[in-house]
Specification:
Blueprint lengths: L1 H12 L9 E3 L4 E3 L5 E7 L10 E6 L5 E6 L12 E7 L7 E9 L2 E4 L3 E4 L2 H16 L4 H7 L2 E3 L5 E2 L14 E2 L14 H18 L5 H20 L10 E3 L11 E2 L16 H11 L10 H18 L11 H18 L2 H16 L24 H10 L7 H20 L10 E4 L5 E4 L16 H14 L7 H18 L40 E2 L7 E2 L4 H4 L5 H4 L3 H13 L11 E6 L18 E10 L2 E3 L5 H14 L4 E7 L7 H4 L3 H17 L4 E5 L16 H23 L4 E7 L2 H5 L3 H4 L5 E5 L30 H10 L7 E6 L3 E4 L13 E2 L8 H8 L6 E5 L4 E6 L4 E4 L3 H13 L4 E5 L7 H9 L10
């Protein structure tokens, strides 16, 4: 069916462009629900015909219902990649789980993708098991493994037991620690990396502690122990590890197997960079498991410690040039890190710190690594992400004074990767690199060069891409206070995994059994070596004849020589790095506890009764509002002093409750531009705010400036507000810290932020957020009859294709994060009230239909809507699944109401947890009768996970 659909789509689109039919390229499997979502249209434009793609739709599959629309960017060529033009598009804002197709349009003609998913943990759910099965299928077995139980060591003439381990590749039944040793700077990490990745993935999933990972974790341990047992066997009792069990000859005969050097110029035993460092690390990790495989954990530890001691004394002797480089540093650091974690021996901590220092000294001013002691650029066909992975693995063990320097080195390194990737047209976000050929000539490039010291060896780099994805994902949580950088890291990681899973110019998923167009391995024109499900092929390369071009799966019938392996042979390191990158996840799991619940109360001149507030279900109360008069902050209503006493009484009974005053609001924001204008005006305002907080025994201040640089309610505003708002927050933060120090408690500073891009355009949120505890997003009032002639949800969670504004809570969160606000500081606003329209026609149940102000006086608090109007008196409740929002429609009276209810609020609570946001705030407390508060309480209450059976 899928093949027929693809054929039909291609035939339909073929008239668009001469030659090849356009292709809509996506990740064949799908996209992380709250992650970056990109696609690319590929086509050939002939003779300057001017054909272009300008818009797209996302449709449900198989129902074919439009759920999302967007514009397509300008088409671009990439280097000299054939005669293709590429149009990038972004649909990150689609965050509703489901299965979809993407339709790209040129005029009324279309090209259509195959179905893909949008789903939380989509790669973990659908590919981890397959990759694990691949490793199990690659286990050394049968007559070959029987021969390995007494295999010849060519150097000594002795026979040893080297059974176990994994066959290296589709056409290679050897078992290798590393290759390319004679090329000095390009040792590939192979079997030891597999064991390391399996164990690291198990630790990551254990820390996440989700029931869905239970059986995968069992299988990870099982496979890792199988590998750890091999590492013990292949270790020389008096030295390091043997590099290779060779499988020479096309016959792959058991009797021909032997332990020998894989490369010229080195012996059969390996140094740190030849796989020994990763083997030591893996054994040290296996020693932390409660049980072993064929050997017990104590034996794993003994082997790791013995190998480390030998290499500390003899590593140089085992290297082809007898000189250490970056590869030795990063693999030895990994070894010493895991030995420290397992043994707590300070000798290993000292060794790790020394290696980390040596690594950081190799970071060049532009953020790239130097491989040698001069300035040779480090680039690598399979392990480019390992420097960052090694440093971050050591981070929590490193001396406190070293930790900021490690993070700085990691940030500089990854900033370089982002910069070199984006310096040229690159709609796929494919990781680029600084390279050098044998002649010493340097350039930046998409692919590994053909003329390095490894020549004639060069191949696809899916392991490199996955290693960089792992490095970016591992680093992202450490930069929570740099949310814009964090977003870039997550997107960069997703781009590399997307490339592997089909979002590439050849529309080929390179993970066998996932997606479509999985390549077949045609060795010398035969199919005797077949790829297997769960394995990942080498990948796409630069052009066979032009390194600025691009090639993939060029068959023997074209080349006439053994080149197929370069692209389509499966290889262990691809799966190892992919497994680790996927186990890291798009974002770390955060337990659903300690979320902030902020209630705005607005009694105005009314005196509050303490019984009206259920303080036990709140963490913060923001009292609205204080006013600004004469440049100073003052009480706004007649009974403010008495009401603050009431709130202080609630705090006395609920010690964790925080009471803040909110200054400004829609009506009283007119003075902010003036008070922030100069250092003196800010000083006067800050002094008055501090006096206000101290006078009423408050826990802090909430600034509701509506809005910097914008008129709001006819307010004074200036372009200088953008900078001055930041300066005001900095002065308030400093003042509150001084006051808090004197009072012996920390005082809070928060803002209420407009949920619109114009608010972001007129503020410096990345700088302002540094001074704030929370940013309360006013993600409501998006539509209202007073300002909009069309009905619409005033607080949707997700956007709807028919929404002319395109705003929703989720899009606003994404925009604030991209602007530099950490997710943990973002508090999602919800309304405890609705908005009504009149004169609405009975079409689409009134949603996004023309309307005006309701002539009837409708009191639209939640309690009133729920009890008096919902499914009563001609009003029918409808649910918009795309927006995750309810609405009421009375077709006979032409009335339409948008509001928040328990179902939509429950969805927002789940969203807050999934996105690791700070919590929820609502306006206004008295619009609820307790039912919505109970939804929040239940939504933020941790649920017990089912454990292993």
């Amino acid at each position: 069916m899928k093949r027929l659909l693809r054929l039909a789509c291609c035939l339909f689109a073929a008239s668009l462009f001469a030659g090849e039919a356009p292709l809509v390229l996506t990740n064949h499997l799908g996209y992380e629900r709250y992650g970056a979502k990109r696609a690319v249209v590929r086509a050939v434009v002939k003779d300057g015909a001017g054909d272009t793609f300008d818009r797209y739709e996302i449709r449900t599959w198989p129902a074919d219902r439009v759920v999302f629309k967007g514009d397509i960017g300008v088409g671009t060529a990439v280097d000299r990649w054939r005669d293709w033009t590429f149009w990038p598009l972004d649909f990150t804002d689609l965050q509703l789980e489901g299965e979809y197709v993407l339709v790209a349009y040129q005029g009324d003609r279309a090209a259509r993708s195959l179905p893909f998913k949008v789903q939380a943990r989509v790669l973990e759910r659908h590919t981890l098991s397959n990759v694990l099965a691949y490793f199990k299928g690659q286990r050394s077995s049968g007559l070959l493994d029987k021969a390995d139980r007494h295999v010849l060591v060519k150097e000594t003439g002795q026979r040893v037991d080297a059974h176990g381990g994994w066959f290296d590749a589709t056409g290679d039944y050897g078992k290798h620690f590393s290759q390319l040793s004679s090329a000095t700077y390009f040792n590939t990490q192979q079997i030891p990396l597999v064991v390391y990745s399996l164990l690291r993935a198990q630790e990551l999933l254990a820390a996440r502690n989700e029931v869905n990972d239970t059986q995968i974790r069992r299988r990870l341990v099982d496979e890792a122990l199988f590998g750890a047992d091999y590492l013990v066997r292949i270790k020389d009792p008096k030295g390091s590890f043997h590099q290779t069990v060779m499988a020479p000859g096309s016959g792959k005969k058991p009797e021909d197997r032997r332990i020998a050097q894989y490369d010229k110029g080195v012996g059969s035993q390996v140094g740190y960079r030849g796989g020994a460092g990763m083997a030591i690390a893996a054994l040290a990790m296996a020693a932390r498991l409660p049980e072993g495989g064929d050997f017990d954990p104590a034996t794993y530890r003994k082997a790791a410690e013995a190998a480390f001691a030998h290499l500390e004394a003899h590593n140089l002797e085992l290297l082809n040039d007898h000189k250490e480089n970056l590869l030795d540093d990063m693999t030895a650091l990994t070894a010493a890190t895991e030995l420290t974690r397992t043994t707590q021996d300070p000798r290993y901590l000292s060794a790790a710190a020394k290696r980390a220092e040596q690594m950081m000294a190799r970071l060049l001013p532009d953020g790239s690594w130097r491989a040698d002691d001069k300035d040779r650029p480090f680039f690598h066909p399979s392990d480019a992400g390992l420097p960052v992975v090694a440093l971050l693995a050591f981070l929590d063990l490193a001396p406190k004074a070293m930790q900021p320097r490690i993070l700085d080195a990691v940030r500089r390194s990854l900033a370089f990767e982002l910069a070199v990737t984006s310096e040229v047209p690159n709609p796929f976000g494919l990781a680029r690199q600084k390279v050098q050929n044998k002649a010493g000539e340097r350039r930046t490039a998409f692919f590994f060069p053909h003329d390095t010291e490894t020549a004639p060896w060069w191949q696809g780099e899916n392991a490199r891409l996955a290693s960089l994805a792992a490095a970016a994902r591992l680093a992202a949580p450490h930069f929570a206070d740099e949310s814009a950088f964090q977003v870039k890291l997550r997107s960069y990681a997703a781009d590399q995994l997307n490339w592997i899973l089909g979002l590439n110019p050849f529309d080929a998923s390179m993970l066998h059994g996932t997606g479509h167009n999985n390549p077949e391995y045609g060795w010398m024109g035969t199919w005797q070596y077949e790829n297997v499900p769960g394995g990942i092929v080498n990948g796409i390369t630069s052009g066979l004849k032009d390194e600025h071009d691009i090639d993939f799966n060029v068959p023997y019938s074209v080349t006439g020589r053994d080149d197929d392996w370069r692209w389509v042979e499966q290889w262990l390191p691809h799966g190892a790095w992919y497994l680790l990158a996927v186990a890291l996840g798009d974002r770390a799991g955060v337990p659903p506890a300690n979320r902030t619940v902020i209630a705005y109360v607005f009694p105005q001149d009314r005196k509050m009764d303490p019984k009206e507030i259920d303080a036990a279900r709140l963490t913060h109360i923001n009292y609205a509002f204080a006013d600004i008069k004469g440049g100073r902050m003052v009480e706004g209503f007649r009974n403010d002093a008495a009401n603050f006493q009431v709130l202080s009484g609630l705090k006395a009974k609920n010690s964790a409750l925080k009471i803040l005053v909110s200054v400004g609001g829609w009506t009283w924001s007119g003075g902010f531009s003036d008070v922030s204008l100069t250092a003196e005006s800010r000083r006067v305002f800050v002094d008055s705010a501090l006096a206000f907080v101290e006078r009423h025994h408050l826990d802090g201040l909430d600034v509701d400036w509506e809005y910097p640089g914008l008129p709001g309610n006819g307010n004074v505003n200036r372009p200088e507000d953008k900078r001055n708002a930041t300066l005001l927050m900095a002065d308030l933060r400093a003042g509150l810290d001084r006051l808090g120090s004197r009072l012996g408690r920390r005082l809070l500073l928060t803002i209420a932020a407009g949920a619109m891009d114009t608010f972001l355009a007129n503020t410096e949120m990345d700088q302002m957020a540094r001074h704030l505890d929370y940013v309360n997003l006013m993600t409501y009032d998006q539509f209202g009859a007073d300002a909009d002639a069309t009905t619409g949800h005033h607080a949707p969670l997700f956007t709807h294709w028919a929404n002319p504004k395109g705003y929703a809570a989720s899009t606003i969160v994404d925009h604030f994060v991209a602007a530099g606000v950490p997710e943990r500081k973002l508090v999602l606003g919800v309304p405890f009230y609705g908005k009504a329209w009149g004169g609405v026609r009975d079409k689409a149940h009134g949603l996004y239909q023309p309307g005006g102000a309701a002539k009837l006086n409708l009191f639209t608090s939640f309690a009133n809507l729920k009890d008096k109007l919902e499914n009563k008196d001609g009003f029918l409740r409808f649910w918009d699944d795309l927006s995750q929002a309810p609405y009421l429609h009375n077709p006979s009276k032409g009335l339409w109401i948008t509001y928040e209810d328990g179902e939509s609020l429950g969805a927002k609570c789940r969203y807050i947890l999934d996105r690791s946001l700070g919590g929820v705030m609502f306006w206004e407390y008295h619009g609820d009768d307790g039912r919505l508060l109970e939804v929040i309480r239940k939504g933020f209450t941790p649920k017990a996970e089912a454990g292993p059976r």
